[in-house]
Structures are given as C-alpha cells and as structure tokens.
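subagent[fold] <- orchestrator: predict structure for attached chain, return tokens only, no commentary.
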Amino acid sequence: MARSNIGGFFAFCAKAVCACLLGAVLVVGGTNAYVVTSATPSITSAEQARLRGTCDAVVVLGASVFTDGTPSDILRDRLETAAGLYASGIAPTIIVSGDGSTVYNNEPETMKNYLVNLGVPESAIVRDDAGLSTYESMYRARYVYGVQSVAVVTQNYHLPRAIASARLLGCDVVGVPADRGSYENQMSYEIREIPARTKDLVQAALHMDPSRL
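subagent[fold] -> orchestrator:
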C-alpha cells in the first residue's frame, strides 16, 4: 500500500511538472508570436521612416564596446544608421542608451564619441547611462526624457522587443534596422531574444519602473 501511494505521488508530480513545462512553452511561444507579429509592421527602412515624418528622438540601443573605446561591429552599424537618420532631419535628438556604470567599456560615452566623429553635434546627443536593458532604455526614453514619438535603431532580430515595449509604454514608434552585414554569435542573439521578449512584454504591459525591480 505504501509503495502504491509513493508511486501515485511520483506520477502526480510528473504530471504536474509536464503541465508546468507545457504552460511555460505556451506562454513563451504566445508572447513571442504577439511581439513579432504586432511589431513587424512598424519595422521600416531609413528612407521610409523619413517619409513617415519627424519624431521626438532617435534612440540607439547599446551593445558591447572594445577596451580601446571603439564600438563593436553591431554597435557601429547602429550608430551609423542613427547618424544617417539625424542627418535627414527625422529628429532633433539622438538618445544613446546603454550601460554607463563603468569608466572602461562605457557604452553611452563610446556611442556619443562615435556619433560626434560622424558629424552629429554633441548638443544633439543625450547620454542615457542607465539603459541597462532594452526595456530600461525604452522606459527611460518615455518617462525620464519625455519622448512620445521615437525611431528605435538596432538590429532586425532585436527590433520587435524594443518596438513592443515602446508601444505599450505609450510611444508612437518606428523601428529602423541597422543590419549591414553578418555578426558573430548571431544564433545566440536570436535564442536570447526568446525569453527576453516574454520578460519585456510583461514589464511593459505593467509599466514596471526599472529602478524598483
């Protein structure tokens, strides 16, 4: 009898675990489908973005920088795309948002310097040193810097998450892809987006303040 009870308990636990795993897969799959399908119509080329009219700011999402103070390939492409948008007159301001918590590998500082070298006036660049994640960057653009309309610049794989977050936070948003070639570790970036889309969607839907997380 005791063995029967133990066997039944383990069978129940196995079913419960399977149910939880199935639920997690459905939640992650459903939120990813929503983020991608809802955001895709707002992804546009730089030329088409200009035709849509002006916005309050261009937001460039941070990425890794090298120890010599130069941007990685993925970040360089974002910055060059943003500089082109600024030159076209799409927005009066570029917000460079990333991790500015350290002296070395300071993303916003590197981003600002690179943009200045591309001819963007320093006065037109806003450094957001607390954009430690995509959601934090979009939240701070909306509620710290008061942006209501925005052109977000990052790579195609990353845009749906940023667009969905910005829209749920109340921004009129377009996304401009910065893909100018292939990147190392592209597959890992794609995989990382799967849980990140779910996380950011929940945070944006609840308007969570990142400083309190």
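orchestrator: received. Logging for downstream: The mean pLDDT is 91. The longest strand covers residues 149-154.
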